[in-house]
From TrEMBL:
Residue spans crossing the bilayer: none
Presence of the UniProt keyword Hydrolase in the record: yes
Pfam families found in the cross-reference section: Lysine_decarbox (PF03641)
Superkingdom per UniProt: Bacteria
The EC number(s) this enzyme carries: 3.2.2.n1
Protein name: Cytokinin riboside 5'-monophosphate phosphoribohydrolase
Species this protein is from: Thermophilibacter immobilis
GO molecular function terms attached to this record: hydrolase activity
Protein family: Belongs to the LOG family.
GO annotations of cellular component type: cytosol
Length: 263
């Protein structure tokens, strides 16, 4: 190449550089860089502020995940400073005249008198009884309610309450914030809560936590089946039945349920 030709190529390259970048301006969206035809016509802020006619997104999973996260954050925030606590589970249908209602009320009061917060599902029946006992002696009476179609908030004896949309978030709170559980007679909901906890302990997902089944007449049948067919068929270990203690004695229930709480 002659010297003249060299000069012409250099000049063309120089001119191009002066005109700007070959693909035009660079567009940034977070860590992503886009140029030329890859630049989108919308912007994240524009999307955020735009009016949407359809509200279908409210019922989609990404939005649901945010609601679940928010529920965890609210629950942790409400309970972080609770202190030692025991959960009392039991039927939502137990009438106030039932001896088990009376027992749950006594147990709630005795736990509170020992400085132990009482956590329940915040509903009627056994939950109300335990909350009532705890709050009447000036203790911490926690109700972790669940949004149900025909239920109205938490019972009137709760002095620290929160209503959850998701059962599994609420169950996390029971497990995380109580050192032991007392399970009064109940139905599916009660068994679900007891067996969730037992499964977590059995699989070493959580530290061994005392689980008291209160009311031998009610629970003996279940214990016989657990110690019989369930254990004999090898579906649980020989040691698993001992994860539960059955009693009719309020003070023994409290002693066992609070046994992991340090003095
Ligand atoms: C069915 C009735 C009320 C339902 N209201 C409830 N409120 C709060 N928590 C509840 C409710 N129902 C069940 N739970 C939870 O399950 C356990 C009791 O369930 P079970 O099937 O009655 O044994 C309880 O520990 C709660 O955490 C009637 O008015």
């Amino acid at each position: 190449m002659t010297d003249k030709k060299h000069d012409a190529v250099d000049l063309a390259q120089e001119n191009e550089a002066c005109e700007g970048e070959p693909l035009g301006t660079t567009y940034h969206r977070g860590p992503v860089i886009m140029r030329g035809p890859m630049i989108p016509s919308d912007t994240t802020t524009g999307n955020l502020l735009s009016h949407e006619d359809s509200t279908d997104w409210l019922h989609m999973d990404p939005w649901r995940v945010l609601r679940i996260q928010a529920e965890f954050v609210d629950g942790f925030g409400a309970l972080a400073e609770l202190g030692p606590a025991v959960s009392c589970f039991g039927s939502a249908r137990t009438p106030r005249s039932d001896p088990m209602y009376r027992a749950a009320r006594h147990v709630g009061a005795k736990l509170a008198q020992r400085g132990v917060a009482v956590i329940t599902g915040g509903g009627p029946g056994i939950m109300e009884a335990a909350n009532r006992g705890a709050s009447q002696v000036g203790g911490k009476s926690v109700g972790l309610g669940i949004e149900l179609p025909h239920e109205q908030g938490v019972n009137e004896w709760v002095n620290l309450g929160m209503t959850f949309r998701y059962f599994f978030v609420r169950k996390t709170m029971f497990v995380k914030y109580s050192s032991g559980s007392i399970v009064f007679p109940g139905g599916f909901g009660t068994l679900d809560e007891a067996f969730e906890l037992l499964t977590l302990v059995q699989t070493h997902k959580v530290a061994k936590t005392p689980v008291v089944l209160f009311g031998s007449e009610y629970w003996d049948g279940l214990m016989s089946w657990i110690e019989g067919p369930m254990r004999e068929s090898g579906n649980i270990s020989e040691l698993d039945p001992a994860l539960m203690v059955v009693t009719d004695d309020e003070d023994e229930a409290i002693r066992v349920a609070t046994s992991t709480i340090g003095g």
